[in-house]
Amino acid sequence: MDRELPLSEALARIQRRLEQARLDLISLQAAVLSAGALGAVGQPSLRNDGRLPAPARAAPAIPVADSISPDGRFIYCLIDGKKLQMLRKYLRRYGHTPASYRAAFGLPPDYPMTAPGYSARKREEAYRVGLGTGPNRAGSGSGARPNVAGPGA
User: Fold this and answer.
1) 106, 54 Cβ separation under 8 angstroms
2) Which are the contacts of 138, defined by CB distance < 8 A and separation ≥ 6?
3) Which long-range contacts (CB under 8 A, 24 or more apart) does 67-70 make?
4) Is residue 24 scored above 90 in pLDDT?
5) Quick one: how far is CA 47 from the chain centroid?
6) Which residues pair with 70 in a beta bridge?
7) 68: which residues sit within 8 A by CB, 6+ positions away?
8) For range 11-40, the mean pLDDT
9) Distance CA 84, CA 94 (A)
């Protein structure tokens, strides 16, 4: 059975936790600053021509050539190698947009974010239910518009 703490004791616990978090933050800042002093971390330096160096490309978890399954049903994330059908939303967990993901791995602008087989299957389903076929062509009806009488008809 949990006992309720007096307010002063609860506040004291919170203050101790905040102080510990502050000390942890200070030690992390010191580690980052000392690494920067050793040249491990810091601002990117300008090249001789005044431009920033090109960002380093990340090493993919799997080869780029193998990132789409042979049957096209799946696409593999180059960050962690996970097998997916749609990559766009999954990239958010790593803080990437499709453009930043493509740039990080040196992929072409038309590199797919959805498995080709998945896209084809969804396209077929959409056509089967009548989407994308124009007005009055959906379903197996005669295609004639229903006669709807408006006001004053």
Assistant:
1) no
2) 129, 130, 131
3) 68/112, 68/115, 68/116, 69/115, 69/117
4) no
5) 31
6) none
7) 74, 75, 76, 112, 115, 116
8) 80
9) 15
- The residue assigned the tokens 């030690």 is 27
C-alpha 61: how far from its chain's center?
Answer: 16
Q: Measure the CA–CA gap between 53 and 49, rounded to whole angstroms.
A: 10
pLDDT digits (tens, 9 = 90+) for 57-80: 778 889 999 999 999 999 999 999
pTM of the entire predicted model? 0.51
| 149, pLDDT greater than 70 | no
Domain boundaries, the chain: 57-132
Q: Which CATH number fits domain 57-132: 2.60.200.30, 1.20.1050.10, 3.40.50.2300, 1.10.10.1550?
A: 1.10.10.1550
Type and span of the H or E element at 83: strand 83-84
Of 94, 97, 98, 96, residue with least CA distance to 80: 94
H or E element, residue 99: helix 98-105
Q: Reduce the DSSP state of residue 76 to 3 states and report it.
A: strand
For residue 30, the 8-state DSSP code is: H
